[in-house]
Q: What sequence folds into this?
């Protein structure tokens, strides 16, 4: 998954204004206790991060 696709899905799920805030603030255990932003900065693949987001939120099946 390209990073641009990841952020497009984040914005579609959380909304334009909330996606980046959620990514900075919400800690996900499956990402080693990191936020989305931290995990991506540490080199975790966007697809892996997206799967973790899907597990902790109710992402529409179309976006999974």
A:
């Amino acid at each position: 998954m390209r990073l641009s696709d990841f952020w497009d899905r984040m914005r579609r799920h959380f909304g334009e204004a909330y996606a980046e805030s959620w990514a900075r603030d919400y800690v996900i255990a499956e990402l080693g206790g990191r936020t989305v932003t931290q995990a991506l900065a540490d080199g975790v693949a966007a697809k892996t991060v997206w799967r973790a987001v899907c597990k902790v939120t109710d992402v529409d099946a179309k976006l999974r």
About this structure: The chain has a mean pLDDT of 95.
